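RECORD CONTENTS
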Amino acid sequence: MDSLTNNKNFNISASFYDDIKGIIIDSRNAAIRSVDVQRVFMYWRLGERIFIEEQRGKERAEYGEYLIHNLSTQLETEFGSGFSYRQLAYCRKFYRLYPIVNALRSQLNWSQYRLLIGIDDDYKREYYELEAVNNGWTGREMERQINAALYERLLLSNNKEAVLAVARKERIPEHPTEIIKDPMILEFLGLKRQSAYYEKDFESALITHLQEFLLEIGNGFSFVARQKRLLVEDDEFFADLVFYNRLLRCFVVIEIKTHKITHQDLGQLQMYVNYFDRYEKLPDENPTVGILLCAAKNDALVKITLPDDNSQILTSQYQLYLPSEETLLEEIKDILDMADGGARMSKWEMVRLGDVFTDATKYGKKIQKESYCERGLYPIIDQGKAYIAGYANDEDGLFVDIPAIIFGDHTRVFKYIDSPFFLGADGVKLLKSKINNADYKYLYYCLQTAYIPDTGYNRHFKWLKEVKIPLPPLSVQQKIADVLDRASVLIEKRKEQIAKLDTLVKSKFVEMFGDPVTNPMGWEVRKLSELSIKITDGVHAKPHYTDSGMPFISVVNITKGFVDFTGCKYVSVPDYEKMIKSTNPEHSDVLYTKVGATYGIPALVDTYEKFCLYVSVCLIKPDHSKINARFLSISMGLPYIKQQADKRIRGIGVPDLHLNQIREFNILYPPIEFQDKFVELVRAIETQKVRLKRGLELMELEYRSLMQKCFKGDMFNG
């Protein structure tokens, strides 16, 4: 035995040693995971107990803050660090977001759950949760993906449900028709109204507005080529537009026809598709798809021309203009003219809403506000402006007799509900129809135009019951509701486009400069103080307000990157002159909110209007020789800066960032020529956004006008 022990020539095999080492590492990792799981459960139980204790003092708004503060002081005295006020506040929020302990995922540790808790959007939070589990992300990898705006970048080519469906591993698209839209609304091209267009002009407009076209065309498209040259022996052909779809894993050839579709058009596109399949497609890619984007379709012609098993050639009709109020009114008038052999609405009964609806509130279970969950199986509908106030998971008392209409007895808000739900506790009326020949969606639209006097925070149901509405035959109600549905869908579509442009800036930043946390491109990083001439804040003492004078800006006036003077306070000129001696905001300065729940919001001063600041707003005077002010403002609004602010924030009850903490922010610092290039791109995006917002305002104005004309009698006189 001793000889073996001392034998230097005795070698342990590498595979044996690797096995032993693997057992040790696996055991250690399992022990760490076990500790992590218990830690997560501990914090969940702490959050649950704090939440329950808070309910005892719910009549005092500040009770919860005092409870956590005092609890933190005692726990840190006995157990040391790890139970700070902020940590316990996270525990409470953790329980509210994840009220079912069995739904917690053992694959996620507390660091990962803390990242998830910081995400307000339910869809976004669920996406990162699922991706972390599916891909085995570490906490650092999850943080990197959040900072890199992975979810927002996917939303540029998918809707929320599609993104989550992929994350949930439910399915991937199997056929082009699942992601390609028909019709395509191309009003963003801005083409003037005329009877005909040259195809090259149409194509040029699409390229000019390529980003918007990618948002409209469908999910997962990337641009490949314009006027792609196809050489067949000595003959040349040119495909209008070529894309690649990452979800379908195939080329997509788009041919534009500004006339009604013909069989020659289909044959031409079929030839282009065949060419790509034989000469461009890789063996592991799916067959090429062809889309004929035309002014008018002929489904019968397509069916006769193409084989029965066709799955590669699709047709989509484009629409260059959103339906106007006049167009929709004409459609509704046509519906009315066809009803009852041409009878006009003046012959239809005007009915009192009290005779149409019954108050069914007693049949719905009311949930107290303190019992709302931030996520769950079933929505809670209250009288607030938000469609859903919270969630519940218990099925006891769930209202399933849908559809139904909710009326806010105090707020005069109406909501159409078509899925099982619970009621909010205060001021909610649940309306059900007494009659059989009433369409709930039609009634909902009628209610949108009902005049109910504002009597303050009093009951309004008695006024609602006296309102009279026209009640045409059921089939006519359904057709009118369908037209109004389509109008409202267009408005929501425009809002979605605007929201996607909001995420595009973050995506483009990551595309140009990489993840600012890991900095894979090796850009220089500077402290904010090194890039600024001065960093200060506004006046600390609350001033004497005046009815007019010089604008006085606080955190409530900093919204979405700009200073909003709407509803701002005013101070006298002498007071203003005293304030600006130390803090004088000027054009191209950057403001940053530093106090209160809305801390961490930047705003570029893009106005020459004079104003002064309150202490809640930090003033940053950039060194313009080093950094582009707009680039700095955008950077200050990105997640990697917000996370630095979150780690530094102090204050009990009211969060407060100190100036020294803001000065220490690490700013990604590419050369100024790259900053300028990024800012040019952002300006183009903002120009699109302004145009879309103007269009949205016009659409909403026309929609309200349409509703008034439809239900207020303008169309009822035959």
